[in-house]
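Recall the central idea of this unit: under ordinary conditions, the amino acid sequence of a chain determines the structure it adopts. In this exercise we apply that idea directly, starting from the sequence alone.
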Amino acid sequence: MSNRNLHSFSPLLLLLLCSCAGQQAPQGGPVDTDPPQIISTYPAPNTTRYNERRLVFEFDEYVERRTFEESIFISPAVGRVEFDWSGTEVEVRFTEPLRKNTTYVVTIGTDVADLRNRNKMERAFSLAFSTGDAIDYGMIEGKVYTLKPDDRSEGVMVFAYQLVNGSGDTLNPVHVAPSYVTQTGKGGEFTLQHLALGTYRILAVRDSYKNLLYDPEVDEYGVPTRDIVLTEEDSVASGIRIRLSKQDTTAPRLLKVTVQGRTQLLLECSEPMHQGTFFPQGVFVVDTLSNREVSVKSIAQLYSKPASFMVVTDTLEKERPYRIRVSDARDLAGNPMHPLANSISFTVTNERDSLDVRVIGISVADSAKGIVLRPDILVGFSTPVVREEAERGIRLVDSRNKVVPLHLRWFGGATVGLHPREELAGKSFYRLEIGLSSIKDLFSRRGRDTTLAVTFETLDPEALSAIEGRVIDTHPTDTSGSLILTAQNVEKKDAAPAQVVLSSSGPFRLNYLEEGRYILEVFRDRNKNMRYDSGLPFPFQTSERFVQYRDTLRLRARWPLEGILLELR
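Accordingly, the structure predicted from this sequence is:
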């Protein structure tokens, strides 16, 4: 062939090469906001006696091939699959034969994105077919709630493990792949279809590694309140609620000890610790030369530093080597101190102990405005103090210098919570006074001869609103613990949620709420620790029952919301 003929064929060859090189979405036109959809499949849904080794899916638009190939899940597993694309159509080929008399469920997850504008599928797509004469018909549907209000609710994996002959006791999702899978759609809803009848354990996982396994401390997880049994009489389980959480399995460590005096040591841990597990009987200070143990008189968690503790001991000798060891202390997730990092050596270099009592933090800033009418005010001291002395040195007064009665609650020996016994007046000034000279520590050392004062103004009740309604718990047996109702202002992420505790089903009212959008939720505090417990994937623990109001509530000043119904099942 001549050079002239080669040149004349170049545009055609170039066109063919470009059309084979990769996907090309149609250009131009309005912005695409529609999610991609599967418009046809081979085989057709619910086909029986199917014995081929291929599936075909056709989309209504071009999709990113990688997102499809990473979002197809086949239950039960079929081994390696291969993909052959042609425009908006993809053929999925099995490299191994299918099992006999088996229902297969092919799920296309919501991470599939179109090519033009990366719109994702609105909900997971399921295709069921059988190599036998019938299709399994069990179904589980529900909703996954995110860890934070702004987190993405779609794309969370929902694993279903079929439990056989007591396998639930040994089922570890870190190593065991699920029997069935699906993904949440927009709003967090999910549906597992065409399940064989039997008992199932459900686990929601934000599968970071896309390995169909649960990776602790990497993946968020969620478990329901029970295992689910599907029978011929009751083959559909609906209304399953799952809240995502994050598991902490890392053991805390003792990082540092600072000698602050001949009787005071400041311990710093790698993470916040549970005050209730840090007590004098579990902390040991030993003179490493004589092996003599030094008495520990008190331990106090520092205000605003939940990973730091002040340890008060008998007088330590200068230039003597000591070692401090912490036993039994646990972090907020219940993990015990790491056995290889629970002790530190130190030497006392201070000539004498000259520390005095100081206030190191108050949760209300001076000149603060908009303080709620029943505030919880925390005051932190530099060292554990004698409670009776401190309580006499603290008072709250109004603008006429009238003393406001307080309820005091101690958190260890160095932090006290102040709560007015009666509601404060709205849009009024108050002054918190702390007489340091009348407060002494365990060695009778007092603060300076001064009074620390913090002034604040309460909020205007006319600028507030309220939510009232009724909570109904219909569960016949799970009735232990209170019902804890919370309203979280999603427009103020750092704001503490408003809360009310109910002893049983009945009416509720949340007062003095600022304007904004609120998420309303109630849970049954089964273990009576005043916080929601999300359960564990392994060893398996069910979560506490909860329900979230279906809509975000919009509050306006002086316009309370009424008639809110929360039904806990």
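Residues 1-21 have pLDDT under 50 and may be disordered.
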